[in-house]
## 1
Amino acid sequence: MYNFSIWINDNMASDFSGKIAAGDRFKINNLETESTIEGTDIADLDGGHLAEIRNLLISHFKKLVLLSAAKPVTESEYYRRLFRKAHVLGVEYIKVPAGEAASPLGEKPPAAPEGDTLPGDNPAAAGKVPAKEGEAESQAESFREICRIGKAYGIGVLVENNSKTALPSASSVARFFESAGKGSAELIFNPLEYVRIKRHPFLNEFYNSRLKNMIRFLRVSDGLFVDGEAVLPAQGNGEIKEMASILLARGFKGYFSFTPYLKDMSLRDYEEIIERFKKLLTQM
């Protein structure tokens, strides 16, 4: 059966119990969240609070499949704490903000429309000029260290294409992965962010990409070439049906990820997005 995951942001539910209740509402047991929960980063939680979250997950048959960290990859001590606490919670993947680490090795990102961002995104990295060679290697080594920490704890490390960072395209992501070492990290594929640089997610970014087998999450998102505006699935240029279809044809075992990508999105909006995507799946 297909795997679905969902991110409930703080505007939808401010506490962790509310996020779990929202997962119950949509019958989705795989949760995504920022690394900060109820105002405290998971890396800084004490044992009692960590146990409370773990017990909530167990009692509601929920799993934290993706944490999105916001701190720079150079803060290795922070990531050691985060992975250690995430391991206690049974987290499957951690996404890191790789835009700054990629900038010396990738490309300067194109201008993109303003809009909602996902947890861990780094809009400030947009427009950064390449760093000095020594700084670039330091950032790359920091990312490799995070990957080593993740491997030690059995937690996958992910990066995500983002039009506002130095990883806007499949080619920039591929170069970044090469710098990190083969097999070190994997990918969250976000169709909307490719649309925002006026690239076809399937035809331009997936079809000729070397990253096909590295995709672990497909964001269920869509948007318009004309201005990058986010729209409902299959109403824009995001080729979400084509992407889901080709991934399933290739034996995709990852997650179809629902995120609050629409402006001022509410839980009611999720109902329509989820139903539209499920209908697309039945037509494949």
Note: The longest strand covers residues 63-68.
## 2
Amino acid sequence: MSFTPERIARARALVLRVLRGELTPDSHRMEFEEDLVNNAVCVMEGSEPEWLLRELRDRRYPIAGRSNVASGLDVHQREIWHELRAEDPSLSELIRYDGQKE
């Protein structure tokens, strides 16, 4: 799927805000419940997966932010979630935005 440069830029900006912990499911519930975050993650995974995976592995971001982004992944979700659990064993299972466990 092809995305416009503007859509990619907006998605990247939103993903970065989640990674930094500026947007959380508690502080910005609508962005998570309305799938704005999930859609941004999907845009980045589809258009710039190398960038997204690099950022998700960057420990300068809080693990909570990286976990929130990882929850929206499609293709790379299990791989990244496994890495996050290795980093923080208290992340025992994936909890999606809607509260369901995987």
Note: The mean pLDDT is 89.
## 3
Amino acid sequence: MKCIHCDEIIPKENNFCGKCGKNITAAPGRIWLLVTGILSTILGVILVFSSIGNFTYFANFILPFVYSCLWMFCGIMGIRHRAALEKAVFLMVAVALPTLPTVAVLLLGIINFYITPTNMLIAFFVYFPVPICYFVGAYKNYLAHREQTETEEF
């Protein structure tokens, strides 16, 4: 295996580089995934309470509840697998689960002119930056995993 910091060849069983002393198994996107995972989980809990508070009939409850569970699932998976480089592709796909309904609702609201400026600001400052930062963390882990697997082949 090759050190990602100084390109020193080191044995596969070592976790630290003998030349620079840095941890070679550390995931570069783990902090991104931890922070955005916590934010996603908190947002999911807030959305669960919001969907329970707005409960008028079952059809009005189920879609927001599923949507909030997607946010919590994505957040918990980000926290749990933040250091697992081999789970990076799974995390990049998982972040699309809560993001795609947000984009769809936002586009429908813009097309039908029923979205308010307040909802638009919330969408652009909460619902989009969190998944984008989550994806950045997962992508950093993916690049590190790809680099490690390429150096193991040689």
Note: Residues 30-153 form one domain.
## 4
Amino acid sequence: MQRSNLYLMFRVAAATLLATAATGALSMSRPPPQDFPQASVDYFAGMDDGIALKPDEVRGRNSWLMWTAGNEGFWDLLARRSFGAFDLLKVLDSRNRATRFAYYGVMNEPGFKAASAPDQFGLWLDVPDGTQDPAYAPQYRENFPKDDFLRTYGRASGIVGLRLYPNPDFDEAAKKKWDAAIKKSADAFYTDKDFYSKEGLVRPYRVGMACGFCHVGPHPLHPPADPENPQWQNLSSNIGAQYLKPARVFVLPDQENNFLFQVVNSMPPGTIDTSALASDNINNPRTMNAIYQVGPRIAAAAEEALSGGNLDLPGTSATMKVPHVLKDGADSVGILGALTRVYVSIGAAYEEWLKHFNLLVGGKGQTPFPVAAARKNSAYFGATVDRMPNVASFFVTVSKPHPLAKAPGGERYLQDSAATVERGQQLFAENCAACHVSYNKMPQPPPGVERDTKAWDDWTRGGDFKSKMVALVRAPDFLNNNFLSTDRRIPVSRVGSNACASLASNAVRGHIWDNFSSDTYKNLPAAGTIGVADPFTGEQRPYVLPGGGRGYLRVPSLVSLWASAPYLHNNSVGLFSGDPSVAGRMAAFQDGIEKMLWPDKRRGMGSIYRTTALSWLTLDKSYLPGPLFAALKTKFGVPGDDHVIRLGPIPKGTPVNLLANIDLEYSLDPEKLADFAGLAIKLNAALSDMRDLDDAAAAARFKELVPALLKVSKCPDFVTDRGHLFGTQLSDDDKRALIAWLKRL
């Protein structure tokens, strides 16, 4: 029982969804298997610099922005089981349209306006104001029936990437309950907690999520005059949702004392933990990075070995060149497979997906999501696979750089002297190019020197490479078809960055994304030992990195670096301005790039994610087996509420990842079991003590648990803005010259 107590206490999902999810999902209503036609009308012609698209590319962009692959059922499932903590339908509240970008960081969809009254269900939803979405437009232009469009894509919601569908479970009985609540209070869904927090509440609509929700953002070259009121020409499909605020989208307001909020709140704007749903028990938010130069990236990809479930994905073969997708380069089965996995990770084929892990909680051994079974049994997954060639074609065309020189007013930031820029080019060639240039833009290596070997690394550090590289960087066509990255996986022990993203385990052999990672990835050797800091004292201790794919970070692209601050894989270095104007982006660039090159300006220990208030993990009895709830209620019950227990208190200032990174995967290893047993004993004693202590004393008591917590941590690396010290040895003048060139990339 002690381990069950721990298991429940320290994962984000325990506060919302403890995981009857798999069986619950299977009972959800789904449309029968059938064709899902691809939309061919160019509804978003103004986007992406007005680029001309071929018909297949138009279909690809439509899928990126409108296809939710049936995941509206998945997100409805989460809302039903969240007890009021999460609900995308509330994010759509039209009364907030005028402040959505500032508050949520989401993009209002052009062609809509705020509602002046609720709909028949008491819901405040944006209303059309010139949209071409087929659900509202006066003329329907597709070559298939409108009913098929609505079944496939739903209707636009007023937020880019979120689509509305009628809820098939909203039958007469559900409608009667809903109507009774809004008759009593017209705003019941938003204000009556007894109503909106009921488990299993059936909502009139489901909200589906397209990939564009996390990838569309303000266009760097055509920024909106008012970010709350963009036009299509102000939006980019590939820049990434750089301003998204996860805690506000995925946890509803006024929950600072909920440890779930504290975990999600640790994710900086513009990041998301891509393993939060299929949890690997590591909290590692990563940037929703821009998608640039897809064609050159594919052309320069590394050859890797694939087998097993990899070969059930479209376009795969036993040996093939694959780009390295995700921060750790784990997605390594080709662009079509990587795009397909994105849809699964947000709920496509969720009935199959949820069989293979404990949703959000983890704590049991994962098994691979089987591509072959999903292709056979899920019409939505099959339709997703069918769409991916068009999506890939779209990105090959649209993923062009956004140079500062073409941005409005950009020239005012490009007044550096020719000598300064030339010096910056030389410094880039000598200090950065070995990692941050595409192979096709590098010099030819000497005979016998193979790419990505020790001999290659030795050559790129020498004078022959550097002198030739200087000439290439100064060539007029240097930036043409240049991904500005080798896309190579680098040991985190060499980069020095926070290790948690590199330690993600979902793609290792036998885990959930096994079918989407190559054998080459799975067979990567251990990357050595790193030093990690005690989150309270800063004392350094060694941590031995595991192998089997973990311990590496992919080299990020520097394309349009000026438009992508803050920096590092977790947005930890630099100012988050929240301002998508050219001036706002350049303020963030200057602050971030200076902190990259002058690391003493970084926050260091101040960058550790910490709780912002005294918090608790509150659990309803329906989350737990009856005997366990009864046993825990004796100690952790809430007076006056027989249905709830609260685990805590968790003191303000607690490092979030001390708890969020506890390795809960079941193991029979005697040493691991002993560590858990020791922690359980100490934890129970500490929780009892802290209930009677003031804040300072409780925090001091909690610190006594740190050694035991570190023993069971899956990633004991807490300082988020550390590492990548390349170039920091340069003189101040040389750093400024290098910056003059970097903003021109």
Note: Residues 31-241 form one domain.
